[in-house]
Amino acid sequence: MLLVWNAVRLLLALALPVALSQDYCAMRNNVTGIGCQECVDINVLTGISDCAYCFDPYAGEAACAKAYHSPALEYVCYRETPDGLFPATARCAKTDCYYQQCIFNSVVLWYYIVPSVVGGIAVIVGVSLWCYCRARQRESTRKWVDNENKMEQETHMQLELKAHRRKQTRKARAAEIRRKYDLDFDA
User: Fold this and answer.
1) Are strands 88-90 and 97-99 parallel, antiparallel or unpaired?
2) Which residues, at least 6 apart from 37, have a Cβ–Cβ distance to it below 8 Å?
3) How far is CA 168 from CA 97, 140, 165, 184, in A?
4) Rounded Cα–Cα distance for residues 84 and 75 (Å)
């Protein structure tokens, strides 16, 4: 068992520099009968395959090749041109191009699915923020109303107390005037 393990380690040690020096997608393309899944499968060397697969490539183009990365994501099945007049040429039709998955072609993926997912996430985030802000506003309004009611009650109690004191003061003065002039009608 140890002998087999050492043989595998030696094989990996010898094959790894060679594999790293070659283009992974070109290595995949040299395999006969390669399909989309084999082209876009996870790369054991880098973890993620950067290959784009064309189901019906144009004449002289490879079915599995390195994806062309440009600001426009729809150009993954392009290749750079050596003359530099046009930055890239198509390897196949956009509807035949598959990148990092084999379910949806690049047109459906980049024009319908990705915008829908991003839009859905934006709507969810927007609604969540709106609900959060609305709840905070409702709480703030409730606190403000409670504070206003408390201040109104305190003011009302102060006015009642002041009115009660004035009434007591008036009664005391009236009783004093009645006593002074002997106008006590209650007796």
Assistant:
1) unpaired
2) 102
3) 96, 42, 5, 18
4) 16
Give the C-alpha separation, 79 to 65, whole Å: 9
Q: What is the dihedral of CA 97, 115, 87, 60, to 10 degrees?
A: 0
Those residues whose C-beta lies under 8 Å from the C-beta of residue 183, and which sit 6 or more positions away, are 177
Place of tokens 């996430």: 121
SS3 of the chain: helix, strand, coil, percent, to 5: 60, 10, 30
Alpha-carbon distances, residue 20 vs 44, 66, 145 (angstroms):
11, 14, 70
| Selection from 103, 128, 85 nearest residue 36 by Cα | 103
φ/ψ bin of 33: left (φ > 0), alpha (ψ from -120 to 50), beta (otherwise) = left
5 token code pair = 């393990």
Q: How would you class 106 by CB atoms within 10 Å of its CB: exposed for 0-12, middle for 13-18, buried for 19 or more? A: buried
Which tens digit of pLDDT belongs to each residue from 79-124? 777 665 666 778 888 788 888 788 888 778 778 888 899 999 999 9
pLDDT digits (tens, 9 = 90+) for 134-163: 999 999 999 999 999 999 999 999 999 999
